[in-house]
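re: ur question from earlier - yeah i can do the single chain one, its not a big deal. heres the input i used so u can compare w yours
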Amino acid sequence: MSWTLLVLAGLFEIGWAIGLKYTEGFTRPLPTALTVGAMVISIALLGLAVRHLPMGTAYAIWTGIGTVGTVILGIVLFAEPVTALRLGCIALIVTGIMGLKFAA
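and the output i got, formated as tokens:
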């Protein structure tokens, strides 16, 4: 259950990170409310997950999920550049996340 909560927390982190772009500097009320809501949910789920998971592992996986998801959605939604180096770095992050999951 803790791993499920952690993955959900990571997905909400992706949501708020992408949401920041749509708030336009927190000047748009609905995107701002959704972004802040995703932030609160993400942190709350992380807090629940670390009750049964090592803090360092959980935090690294949470940020890793957020980082990889945000980069991928940045490519898809905002036409950010796709280069071999960027894709290689994403692969390294995913490898690190998997390693931490199996080491926990």
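Residues 55-78 form the longest helix (24 residues). not sure if urs matches, ping me
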